[in-house]
Automatic annotation (TrEMBL):
<feature type="signal peptide">
    <location>
        <begin position="1"/>
        <end position="21"/>
    </location>
</feature>
<keyword id="KW-0732">Signal</keyword>
<protein>
    <recommendedName>
        <fullName>PKD domain-containing protein</fullName>
    </recommendedName>
</protein>
Length: 532
């Protein structure tokens, strides 16, 4: 009974205490919940760095843990509300896990899938140069590429030569043959692109001293003169189109190899003069001893493909270049210079280089001045179709010389059109040629009629690049006396002072000549000439 009594008293005491504190409510465990509305703003860079920046947000959050999802057993990054986090990814697909934590320790999660992709390389090209017999250089270029793997195709199991953008890969083959060069361009993207080109490596062109005999000039083309860290690489400086124009006084310099081993430099009144010579890197009067005034000779070693000039001030293309460095004063000119050279198969092109110091290669492309194939005596080909007219080049449907015409026009076919090496031009018609009604003739063989009788003093200009021959001299013409650029003559007295013909060489002894008699007239007279 005593125990029951005590329990009743205790219960009543608790009720009394509770009744006294009805207005003091505890909220310590009321409305406890995890963070809600978890989200994140993402910024994925487009600069191929793989950088992702995110800013997480949520309601009821005290902090975030971010798992970037690109490594195993990752330690999350802790981020306070309102802060951002950045991470750099490789290319690929990832799941980012964001854990939002509340003050009570309850959490909510957001899983976000992202895909990281980089811009692949494009527009891959490669400049491949057979620089010196068996040596090849490859200069690749591509958009969005940082490195290139170059395979030279000499060994099926070869390891590539890897170069950075802007660099040159070189390789020397052991033997002649055809090789497929493969270039693989790589960038930030896992996607790569490839380029292939087959090169033919030939046995060296054997040369003798006599093969150099003649007058050589620098090729008037971009890249024919330059310097770089390797053979075939002129990335430090290279003659460009503007340079060809600015250095015309240099492009026309002549390097003359004589039959007795003599060597001369013909610079004319001006050449390119640099500061070390007292100039201002511009055209100016040649400076001794590099002015061509000294006597010099040359020798050639076929075993080493080297050409040696002997004579103070003798040089090819680069006056300051020597085998022991670059000159700082004309007075320091050496007595000899040795160049590495290689000749083309026809021996009319010479590629050469001079290593002035370790890893400094000056490189030149020279061409031999060859008399234009036009020089000589030409006549109308004694064959059907060699002379005619029509509405287009190649079409002589309006009139064409046939077998009977060859007989009837014998006095025309034997006419000679003579192009001199000194740019002189003359027509030798003999005692008869073909004369027509507008000349007072009767479309038959007869004595030549002035001024188209070969008596005129005339000259010619052959423009190889334009494919034209300009004949200057009243009464001078090729094959057709009445044909001019403004129409066909109605009287001998109307002969112009010059006529321009289109000319194409079928070979060195055969020439196709066309004149449209009147610009836009659609009347094309056409002739096939052969050299005596």
């Amino acid at each position: 009974m005593k125990i029951i009594k005590n329990l009743v008293i205790c219960f009543l005491s608790i009720i009394a205490i509770s009744a006294c504190t009805d207005d003091e409510v505890s909220y310590a465990f009321k409305d406890v919940s995890a963070p809600s509305n978890v989200t994140a703003a993402f910024d994925i860079s487009n600069d191929d760095t793989g950088t992702v920046t995110l800013t997480p947000t949520a309601e009821g959050v005290t902090s975030f843990q971010v798992y970037f999802g690109d490594i195993e057993d990752e330690t999350p990054a802790a981020i306070a509300p309102g802060e951002e986090a950045s991470h750099v990814y490789e290319e690929g697909d990832y799941i980012i896990r964001i854990v939002a934590l509340s003050a009570s320790g309850l959490t909510s999660e957001l899983n976000k899938s992202i895909s990281i992709s980089f811009t692949p390389p494009s527009n891959l090209a490669a400049e491949i140069t057979v620089a010196n017999t068996y040596e090849v250089s490859v200069t690749p270029t591509a958009d969005n590429a940082t490195v290139f793997d170059v395979y030279f195709g000499a060994d099926a199991a070869e390891e590539p030569i890897t170069i950075m953008a802007g660099e040159v890969a070189t390789y020397t083959y052991a033997t002649a043959g055809d090789y497929t060069i493969r270039v693989v361009a790589k960038g930030a993207s896992v996607t790569t692109i490839e380029y292939e080109e087959t090169v033919s490596i030939t046995e060296p062109v054997s040369a003798t001293l006599e093969d150099f005999i003649g007058t050589w000039v620098l090729a008037s083309e971009a890249g024919s003169f330059g310097v770089g860290p390797a053979i075939g690489d002129v990335s430090w400086f290279s003659l460009d189109a503007q340079g060809i124009e600015d250095r015309a006084c240099f492009i026309d310099d002549e390097y003359v190899f004589g039959s007795g081993g003599t060597f001369n430099t013909l610079l004319g009144s001006e050449t390119w003069i640099e500061a070390w010579q007292g100039g201002t890197d511009s055209c100016g009067a040649p400076v001794a001893p590099h002015d061509g005034s000294g006597s010099a000779s040359y020798s050639y070693d076929d075993a080493t493909s080297t050409l040696t000039l002997t004579g103070t001030g003798a040089f090819i293309a680069l006056a300051k270049g020597t085998n022991n460095g670059e000159l700082s004063s004309p007075a320091d000119a050496p007595n000899s210079i040795t160049y590495n050279v290689s000749l083309s198969e026809d021996k009319n092109t010479m590629n050469m280089y001079l290593e002035t110091s370790a890893g400094v290669f000056w490189q030149f492309k020279l061409v031999k001045k060859v008399a234009a194939p036009i020089v000589g005596t030409w006549r109308l080909a004694s064959e059907a179709g060699s002379y005619g007219v029509g509405p287009a080049i190649g079409d002589v449907s309006w009139f064409s010389l046939d077998d009977q015409g060859i007989i009837d026009h014998a006095c025309l076919i034997d006419d000679a059109y003579i192009f001199g090496a000194d740019d002189s031009y003359s027509v030798d018609l003999g005692t008869e040629t073909w004369t027509e009604g507008w000349q007072g003739g009767s479309d038959s063989c007869a004595a030549p009629v002035a001024p188209h009788d070969g008596s005129a003093a005339a000259t010619y200009v052959y423009d190889e690049s334009a494919g034209t021959i300009t004949i200057s001299g009243i009464g001078a013409y090729i094959t057709l006396a009445k044909g001019t650029n403004t129409g066909e003559l109605a009287a001998s007295g109307d002969a112009p002072s010059s006529i321009v013909y289109n000319a194409t060489f079928i070979d060195n002894n055969t020439m196709s000549v066309v004149i449209e008699t009147g610009t836009g007239s659609g009347v094309f007279w056409q002739f096939k000439l052969v050299k005596d």
